[in-house]
Structures
1.
Amino acid sequence: MRDAKLWQATLGVERAVVESVVFDDELGGVVASVRPRKGATRRCGVCQRRCSWYDRGEGRRQWRALDLGSVPVWVEAEAPRVSCPEHGVVVVAFGWARHRARHTTEFENEVAWLAARCSRKAVCELMRVAWRTVTAIVERVVADAHRRADPLEGLRRIGIDEVAYKKGHRYLTVVVDHASGRLVWAEPGRDKATLNSFFDALGKSRCAKLVEVTADGADWIASVVASRCLNARVSMDAFHVVQWATEALDEVRRDVWNQARRAGGDKVLAGRLKGCRYALWKDPDRLTGRQRGKLHWVAHENRQLYRAYLLKEELRLAIRTKGDEGIRLLAHWLTWASHCRLRPFVELAAKVRRHRVAIEQALRSGSSNALAESTNTKIRVLTRVAFGFRSPQPLIAMAMLSVGGACPQLPGRNRPSTLERPPV
Ligand SMILES: [Zn+2]
């Protein structure tokens, strides 16, 4: 074959011999016949071990490869089977594709990279594949990444949380690593059995190395952690505390709004109150001019609601300040909230008191809340596209891809290229 290097590089089959490249009118694309190099033949598709020949299998096989310009490409090769002492009769390993894949590794990596960043429609149209194919590819890419680097290795400080997916209250239990900021584990369910299966996967010696576990204060998490992680301190995911305060504030806002809306109430006030939800929720540093105006208006018009807003903000400040100063602020907040005569906040104060030890532990250790928050937000975004998933497994794989660090590089980016020189 002439121009061997050209074809190896463009087809992404650098570890194979290209025998021929033709345009196939029937397929409407390019078909490249390849064979493995000498040292790469007769290896088990699962473990790559050299094995003895078994049979020709189903003969020749094709894999979709990246397009040449706008022309689709297939790589074609013999797909014999070998007899592996561990995996039985199995199709050989191919240097250009993952085991059981019908697309080349480069094609799969590009699909996965896009799936982590683009809309479902964009990925399917650009790569000319069905969504079903995309999810199967993502699962395979993630499994491959986890085989290369076990995400459960080296964990010291973790956060455990639950995320709802789909309607009908179905949940995933998720575990994040506070050091790397990554999602490391997720499985359907939110009960002791689910969480126990995480600690089973982690194993005894790695459980013993955990020094801190943050959680949202749920009893089922606390009791499993207490029995499985003997060396870890349990602290409250402070992000959840802020979330509780936001919910209490929203309850006060709804009460005030309902009062104004009722017969004989102030309709104008009700309308304006409806519009200040975001101004009340948002971090004050990030308010727009208009939202700041709304907040001023609330301060003048409704002292109850403004008090609720200040209570939320002081709690947020205590959480953000951390350390001894944060603990002092928390104590001040507890006294204030307990006597504020706003039912949602009086109840919240009681709840915070119940979890006070774990919250103070979080303030002392300064575990990042931003992490748990952003991971949760991203998973929630993913659950919105989850209607296309029949089971939670593809959703989990997609989460591992976008927030678990399992996303591959785009093909060809590890070759040096003049394109990466900064523009003059
Ligand atoms: Zn094997």
Note: The mean pLDDT is 88.
2.
Amino acid sequence: MSPVGRAPAFVADAMLGRLAKALRMLGYDASYRRDASDEEIRLTALRERRVVLTRDREIAATGLPIRVVLVEGDRVADQLRHVAGVLGLDPGAVVPFSRCLLCNAPVVQVERDALRDAVPPYVFATQRRFARCPSCGRVYWAATHVERARRWLGDALGAAGTGGGCVVRKNVLVTGRPGVGKTTLVRAAVARLGAGAMGFVTAEIREGGERVGFSIAALDGPSGVLARVGLDSPYQVGRYGVNRADLERVGVPALERAVAGARLIVMDEIGRMELCSEAFQRAVHRALDSPVPVLATVQDRSNEFLDAVRARPDAVLVRITETDRDAALWRVVGLLDGLLSRPPAGGGA
Ligand SMILES: [Zn+2]
């Protein structure tokens, strides 16, 4: 799937600078010039296939084959809700905070070390992820860019969700064939997003160079054996007997603690072995239903439970392949960065 390709681009009239900025925060390509004439706006829309956003009926009245939205509402949140409703915008199709708010250019991730002298020391010490606008040079980090905007954007889109068919897609599901690097991506994303992740991870158990089973570990402590070759169990997956007792002793409480106290819930992975337990399936759905953003890997198979998880309207599916691991990582980090609030003061370990 290529979700970014489906998102419309906009050109806003002189009255709608703040709306253009809000759209940029969401990740939409929103062109805006305070001094653009009506004719320039129409031609920009025609040449660049942009949707015109205007409050001016004269701009709206045009014989050109362009799409025009006559924006209603005086507050930006109302305007955003109106546009989202009219166009059926899907905020999951764009990466929040991926554009410069001043000049609309896509921002570029910058290595933290390169900015040691470019940002205040406190910011350098407390922030992990930085991006720079290649056009105007402005540097963005979560505190300036994300935190202030996140809540009211969520409010605006949450309200649009009740009327305009939009939901905030806060459950990021990574999928792909076995061995493609889903777990590596999740670990890298969690490291970049900072502290506050809770949930569970699974890993291979190897003996003498051979895989003999899988472990399950809560990110905040307890661990156990998820499956093992030769384990006597009514739940057999391939060569492995699944240990439902440890799944429910480690995995279920890890998710319950995460729903109660995490910034980010991690589930690596949701697959066949984990599905022998109804208690575990319920815990997965509670995590997905909670307001907390979720980063999960999902096995690339079809069954009733996995199909239902993937089909959730609040889920974004990121498929990872051998050739686009980096792009998938930045997409996941970008999506979650927009959803997460800043770690507590002094946090970010
Ligand atoms: Zn810029």
Note: The pocket of zinc ion is lined by residues 100, 102-103, 105, 133, 135-136, 138 (CB under 6 Å).
3.
Amino acid sequence: MCSIKTISALPGHPDPVVLEPDFNRVHEIFEKLADRYGKLFTVQFANRPLVVVANANQINFILRKRPDLFGPYSRKNRVLETMKVDGIEAADDHGWKRQREVIAASMESRHMAQYFEYIKAATGDLKNHWITHGENLSKIDLEAEILGFSISVFTSMVFGDLADMPVGEQEVTKNILHNLVPILGRRIDALLPQMHLESFSEDNYFDEDIREIFRAVKNVIARKGSLLNDTNGAGNAVSMVRLLIEAMKEKGSDIRNIKLIENILLIVLASEPTTANTLLRVLFCIAKDPQVQRDIQDEVDAVLGNGGIIEDIEDIKKLKCIDAVILETMRTSSVSRLAIVEAKADLVMDDVEIPAGTPLVLLIARCALDDENFHQARVFDHRRWRSETKVESSKHNGKAFLGFGSGPRSCPGRGLAMLVIKSALAMICGNFQIRLSPEKQPGDKTGFNDKPLSFGLTIEIRDRRHDVAL
Ligand code: HEM
């Protein structure tokens, strides 16, 4: 018979945790504490105990038992509310289910071919833009270019063609939509430090910006909504806004109970920086390891011939090496480092009693770097994801790969994100060469523990005669 213990019997860090002002580094504090206290321990945060979980089985249990036993962290929700992006991420129970059905409908696989047209256009534009730089290409700011690409591709997928707007209005709206991430990002960066404070100090510029964003998004919704009723076929180009409106009507919901505007902003915020940052991390991995870059070049050459871009969505399925390199990059250096949830009722997990209202920090990235879950977990080896080179006896716990989360609330944009990253990588590796800039000396082999958005990468036009010498 196993005896049940309370969380006060778990190993506990004696001092209150002070969170990093840099949002990108907060996870490190908890990951370091896990090295000291193990895979289930407590820390004091904001005058109450918070449970930290690093065990893959327990994390999967928690993620899969949403929304019944665990819900979103209420303190974080207050911050999302003030930012006006309290859509699906802050929702729970029936509200979440209603929003999830509509959002998932807009991202179903049957729409991928239509979204792919936007991806293809943005990828082709990026290629041409880089080619025109010629010899000077190595001087461009690759990180800014990749973020710009991601913003452009998701803005067009979400909002569609704005050509139906009057020209003046079109330009203003485009500008606002392209600046969503920097504007909302200002607040997101401040998200965790702000959690210390009970009240938000208001920032007038932000309020003004957000009002303008709301106006622009409402305008797009009104236009797409009225075009849906146009029997002449106008407005038939697909966009996420249009598909969201269609799904909403089909389910008999309205803009307010679906929180349409908040969710549109949240989708932009959930897609543009994560996808850009993941793509940059992949580029960093292939710049560090010439053999990996060469493997991808060989695969892309076989699919594309001499350069170009992927024109046919069916060809994406042939990119097995690229798929494996993306998964391995996400395993060793995921942009999603931790998740925070809250217990909704008194419950028992394994032999530990967790009281209702307890916040739990889930170290989702650390699981994938644990030798208990993956063979030589800290070594980058994309072959572990490929059936032909996978060593069957090697440890490979797929459930410990949580870069897109798990369970009913896992990322609904996974398919779209992979489509964008694969298309961009095929174009980049087919036509260009990525290198680490000379001043960048990679430290540890897996390491991204330096600033996540400072990879020190350069790009050149690929000259096949000088493909990286191995
Ligand atoms: C590489 C890029 C991306 C990564 C790493 C990523 C990662 C994640 C993670 C870890 C979660 C939380 C999952 C969980 O709690 O189990 C999430 C949720 C979410 N993601 Fe993504 N995501 C990416 C791209 C996207 C894209 C492209 C979209 C939309 C177009 C998107 C929309 C969402 C939404 C709406 C949620 C909230 C789901 C819910 O609460 O039910 N994400 N994402």
Note: The longest strand covers residues 40-45.
4.
Amino acid sequence: MKKTRILGALVFGSIGLVGVALSGVGGGPSGPPSPQAGDQHPSALFIEYCAKCHGRDGTGNTPQGKQLMARDFTDTEWQSSKNDEQLIKQVTKGSEDMPPFGKKLTKEQIESLIKSDVRGFIKKK
Ligand code: HEC
């Protein structure tokens, strides 16, 4: 009788430990933010760096976007006229009216911004 109690306590104790270890790995709500495209649309990355001009809905309907005449990402004709490579290059190197992001963001981040965020504005419709 006494033995099983101790065993039970041991098992319970180790489950508790595993739980603590797992939640530590997950980062939890207080962990560092890691913007990842794909988990939401538009991604946190897009909202942070691009929405100011391009808008959360991708239409470019923001004060700054209108002033600079930012591209409307929901325009399907424009979307099909450009391939991913061209858009990735544009975001990396910038253009006359758009700042370059090649130094601020990694290649992977820019790629996912184009493939999930920018392309996502038409897929969603
Ligand atoms: C300061 C405002 C501004 C910000 C911030 C900005 N853009 Fe732009 N973007 C523009 C303007 C203006 C254009 C249209 C003019 C042009 O193509 O040069 C444009 C055009 C584009 C195009 C279309 C290029 C084409 O071939 O027509 C893509 C794709 C794009 N932006 C992606 C992004 C992404 C991704 C981000 C965030 C990392 C971003 N932009 C941030 C202003 C901005």
Note: The chain has a mean pLDDT of 81.
